[in-house]
Amino acid sequence: MRGHIRKRGAGYQIVVDIGRDPITNKRKQKSIGGFKTKKEAEKALAEYISKIEKGEYFEAEKISLKEFLDHWLETYAKVNVAPKTFIRYKEFCNTINNYIGHNKLNQIKPAHIQKFYSVLIDEGRLSNSTILKIHRMLHLALKHAVMWQMIINNPTEAVTAPRVKKTEMSVWDSDTANKFLNDIKETPIYIPTLLALTTGMRQGEICALKWDNINFSNGTISVVNSLQRLNGKLVIKPPKTDKSIRNISLMDFTIKELKEHRKKQLEYKLLFGENYQDENFVCAWEDGRPMDPHYVSSKFAKLVKQLNYPKIRFHDLRHTHATMLLQQGVNPKIVQERLGHSQVTVTLDIYSHVLPNMQKEAVQKLESLFQKKA
Predict the structure, then answer these.
(1) Tens digit of pLDDT for each residue in 29-51?
(2) Based on the domain organization, do 288 and 193 belong to the same domain?
């Protein structure tokens, strides 16, 4: 029996069995009084029993931050965030627990959290960017603690998060990009590199691309999935955001190269016969297996170094694509749609370094219009 009701003076009291003490193994009960009618007490008892059976009952004055974060990971994060994000959140929680996880949840103050960030910065093991991500996750978790009525307010609201230094973006110009494509034409990552430079797709989106997602008649690619390695396995998942699901118009050059690549794949399919793993991936090995995004990025880095090109990451090819479009005067809204950013403000913030020159060109064009009228 989980609980019962008893009369106490003019009112009623409920007694709830909340389990056993982990140390003494003795039965633990909680008494709550102040109910004016038996009906109120019955309702409260039913709510407490329901919470206990669902694992949602906590005594805020006894639960530690670590215990709460473990609960939050299992009940919220595990079902509401992407698998890769969940793994990252677990890592963040481990870091938090190593420093302040022993503190009682309802006794965590802004000063504890601020000191925690200062220690992380002083140790120098984590970048300010990572510490900021830890802060954002902790803020989200404690926001839920407030919503679940486990604490009164969120202590992270009164904490100053570490600032992240904005690093200058590395991109290639069109001549460098074209020359690199020619130099790697016979390598396995030619098509992934081509797609990154000419569409601005993310690495995982490129590796998840299937031939069904390409419409050669309309000259478009539909971005609907992303490929990631999780726990040693390649997993297909939805893209980063809802805006990431998009259609991208292709250059004629890209269409031509994709068609040639498709012909080669069909030849390999005939060559391998029954041993061909036909999963319809565009970026695949000779036997049909999909390319691992980690392989693509590491192979790209090796070729950049080997061929003595200016050092950039594979992800910077996406930035190169966007920068080229903006330099050609393409509307930032179109660039946002191609990249799959959630809002055009995100695009403008990331590529703000391109905008000053664009403004100068715009003013020069405007001036020529007025000079003609004069």
Answers:
(1) 777 777 888 888 888 888 877 77
(2) yes
Using the Cα atoms of residue 352, residue 356, residue 358 and residue 362 in order, give the sign of their dihedral: positive
Helix (H, G, I), strand (E, B) or coil at 20: strand
Q: Which residues contact 198 (CB under 8 A, 6 or more apart)?
A: 250, 251, 253, 254, 321
Name the helix (H) or strand (E) containing 302.
Answer: helix 293-306
Mark whether 105 and 24 lie in a shared domain.
Answer: no
- H-helix or E-strand spanning residue 51: helix 38-53
pTM of the shown model: 0.66
Place of tokens 């080997």: 306
Do residues 213 and 202 lie in contact, with contact meaning Cβ atoms separated by under 8 Å? no
Q: For residue range 225-252, what is the model confidence (pLDDT) as tens digits?
A: 999 887 778 889 887 778 889 999 999 9
Flag whether 60 is in a domain: no
How far apart, in whole angstroms, are the C-alpha atoms of residue 289 and residue 282? 10
Of the candidates 44, 77, 308, 317, the residue with the CA atom closest to the CA atom of residue 177: 317
Backbone angles phi, psi at 50, to 5 degrees: -60, -45
**Pairing status of strand 233-237 against strand 220-223:** unpaired
Domain count across the chain: 3
Sign of CA dihedral 322, 325, 329, 330: negative
254 CB neighbour count, 10 Å cutoff: 20
Domain check: are 255 and 191 in the same one? yes
Domain that holds residue 30: 3-53
Residue linked to tokens 């910065």: 121
| Residues forming a β-bridge with 12 | 7, 35
- Give 165-204 pLDDT, tens digit per residue: 766 678 999 999 999 999 999 999 999 999 999 999 999 9
